[in-house]
Specification:
The chain folds into 2 domains: 81 residues, no CATH class; 337 residues, 6 Propeller (Neuraminidase), CATH 2.120.10. The chain has 5 helices and 29 strands. Strands 12, 13, 14, 15 and 16 form a 5-stranded antiparallel sheet that branches. It has a 4-stranded antiparallel sheet with strand order 3-2-1-29, with no helix packed on it. The chain is elongated and about 130 Å long.
């Protein structure tokens, strides 16, 4: 509406004029329509000079135009809304902060179940939130604790101890309670270690004081039926049951010569050599599915250590990784130790080196895809049942590493410090240190 026309209106008509202007802008009316509207208003203004009609006559034209304009605005608005497609409402996403590796471990979301540790002639279990270790058998019922072994189902922990050279084996539950004797103050001499049969019914032991390392003992898990088995090959390390429970494999030698990896049936038949290049008592392990045997052979002639996976049934073997043996090592050749498989059989871990400070922990993929160094100056590696956590000892501390972030490259994340290595009962060689997660526990 032009300014002159608006100024010519009375005060009571000004609000209506403003409303019409606003409606015209909202509707974006054409100039012709606005011109016609103004002419109508001008005619109405001219009639004001004539004799004033009644109030109804004055209000009716203005009210009519106002109603018409409002109706037009409402109609246009409805048409526009009907033509524009309705956009679906976007749901509001609630971002849940991702828990850190440390928080997941502390809360038990991953790496569930206790971690057992043998150190300094004592055995320990982690506390519930994995911030420290609890010493088992604080009353020294079992004596000097040599080692331990989890049962296959994870329900029991067999603890090997000795009192004045007489061996003891006790069972504890997974929480470190309910001490139960299997062998107490036996006449078996100094027991070195123990291993469970695959079905969890028997425990295999060996003593360093009976028959010059040529005898193993079998006992039922309830302590009954102790049986002595004589072997024709000396034992240098704890035997492991084969998947069929009918034979054992171990690192040994004939008359302190011809050392290597041997297999012997528990019925007393002669032992056969599997590989004469195996030189370490914990450098071999059976795969979770049974038929594959992994071991590290030390080839001094070629100057390399090779991680081999052999199918015992077919005899086929594959080298999946290798490490150089430093020249000039002589008798101080590096050791391969604590070899074990992940529960899914996809990779293996082990430590390799001479002393505690120059050892390193490695991960090798079972399909030969690669070898990854995980930690320097480290030993006694152990994989959790869910495959998420690698535990190891380094610089008198126990660390946890997130294996999900490892892949084929060295880990970028800083490992989680679980706790300082607890004080044992006496100083022992670091080679006796052992870590093992409770088996069969995953979230």
């Amino acid at each position: 509406m032009n300014k002159d026309l608006r100024n010519g209106l009375t005060a009571d008509e000004q609000p209506v004029a403003s409303k019409l202007d606003s409606l015209a802008e909202d509707m974006q009316l054409s100039s012709a329509f606005q011109w016609e509207l103004e002419n109508q208003l001008m005619d109405a203004a001219k009639k004001k000079t004539r004799p004033s009609p009644g109030w109804r006559t004055k209000v009716t034209p203005t009210l009519g135009w106002t109603i018409l304009a409002l109706f037009a605005v409402i109609s246009l608005n409805w048409i526009v809304r009907s033509l524009v497609p309705t956009q679906p409402s976007t749901p509001v996403e609630t971002t849940v902060p991702e828990l850190s590796f440390a928080d997941q471990v502390r809360q038990g979301d991953i790496c569930a179940g206790p971690l057992a540790l043998a150190h300094g002639f004592a055995v320990f279990l982690t506390n519930q939130d994995k911030t420290g270790f609890m010493m088992l058998d604080q009353q020294k019922t079992i004596g000097e604790l040599r080692s331990f072994a989890w049962s296959p189902d994870g329900r029991h922990l067999a603890i090997v101890g000795n009192t004045t050279g007489r061996g003891n084996i006790y069972l504890m539950d997974s929480a470190g309670n309910q001490l139960q004797p299997v062998l107490s103050d036996s006449a078996l001499g100094y027991l070195r270690d123990a291993a469970w049969s695959r079905d969890g019914r028997q425990i295999l032991m060996w003593s360093s004081q009976i028959e010059n390392n040529s005898v193993v003992f079998l006992v039922n898990a309830d302590g009954t039926s102790l049986v002595e088995k004589r072997l024709d090959v000396l034992i240098f390390g704890t035997p492991q049951f084969a998947p069929d429970n009918a034979s054992i494999i171990y690192y040994g030698a004939k008359s302190f010569s011809s050392d290597g990896l041997y297999q012997a049936r528990v019925d007393g038949s002669r032992a056969r050599m599997i590989n004469n290049l195996v030189e370490n008592d914990t450098g071999f392990a059976w795969s979770p599915d049974g038929p594959r045997l992994a071991y590290v052979e030390m080839d001094r002639g070629l100057g390399e250590a090779r991680l081999v996976v052999e199918d015992i049934v077919t005899g086929s073997r594959v080298v999946i990784a290798s490490l150089p043996i430093p020249k000039g090592s002589g008798s101080s050749i590096p050791e391969s130790a604590n070899l074990s498989w992940s529960s899914d059989g996809k990779y293996l871990i082990f430590d390799f080196g001479r002393g505690a400070t120059d050892r390193a922990v490695y991960l090798a993929y079972a399909d030969g895809a690669g070898l990854v160094k995980l930690a320097d100056s480290a030993h006694a590696p152990a994989i959790s049942a869910d495959g998420r956590c690698l535990a190891y000892i380094s610089n008198k501390q126990v660390f946890l590493m997130d294996l999900n972030s490892t892949l084929l490259t060295p880990p970028a994340e800083t490992p989680l410090l679980l706790a300082d290595l607890p004080v044992g009962r006496a100083i022992a060689d670091f080679r006796l240190d052992k870590l093992q997660w409770r088996p069969g526990v995953s979230p």
